[in-house]
Amino acid sequence: MIIILFLIGFILGLVFTLIGEKAPLLLKEVKYNGDNSWILNLFIAISNSLILLISYYEYGFSYEFLVSIVISGLVIMIFISDFKYMIILDTPLIVSGLLVFILRFIYYGAKNAFLSLLSGGILFLLMLLIGLLGKVIFKKDALGGGDIKLAAIMGIILNLRLGLASIILSSLLAMPYALGSIMLSKDKEVPYGPFLIGSMTIVFIFSEKFLNLINYLT
């Protein structure tokens, strides 16, 4: 079983890497920026295998295990595409959101599934508002469209309270990188997607601790 799970994770890791690296090139405005090294791709594939194994032995074949596969795929694709091309593709977000909605429907019922959609809609509108305010203040786009759409997926996966916690955490994670980027280079544009997806992963893994913290603060 361990070997089978490892191979599945390894193959999925390579597929996620290929999508993150090659799919943005289908867009006319995206320019080729070189291929990832085979060592990096191998490292990503092995890491994905280990994540899949840990998730299986932590959760068994459950909702959490299946969603962890979706999240790991998003992490790989968004990290590669956003850092390399400053773009987050719509298709992985749509497919991931649909898969999580179906899983919620199967495991927890229609009410829970549609509440997760509502949470995603609220976070989408919140990030859209933040993006519009940032554009007014800084006279340029403060958030990319992919970041705003990713917030909707975060709401579907985490629900509203944990989704809000994830957005706050992502801002804290991105701040040192943004400050360093401003001070060390002329390029002040910061890929925010990796920090959003990274914070979502952290909140998903430690969801009980974050819920306890939220309950304590409120």
Topology, element by element:
Blueprint: H1 2-22, H2 38-59, H3 63-85, H4 90-108, H5 110-138, H6 145-158, H7 160-184, H8 193-205, H9 207-217
Helix pairs in contact: 1-2, 1-3, 2-3, 3-4, 3-8, 4-5, 4-6, 5-6, 6-7, 6-8, 7-8
What percentage of the residues does DSSP assign to strands (E)?
under 5%
Average the pLDDT over all residues and give the rounded result. Answer: 88
Characterize the quaternary organization of these chains: single chain
Q: Summarize the main sheet.
A: none
Rough shape? globular
Question: What distance separates the N and C termini?
Answer: 44 Å
SSE series: HHHHHHHHH
C-alpha Rg, in Å? 18 Å
Low-confidence stretches: none
Indicate the structural class. mainly alpha
Helix content: over 70%
Report the count of strand segments: 0
How many H/I helical runs?
A: 9
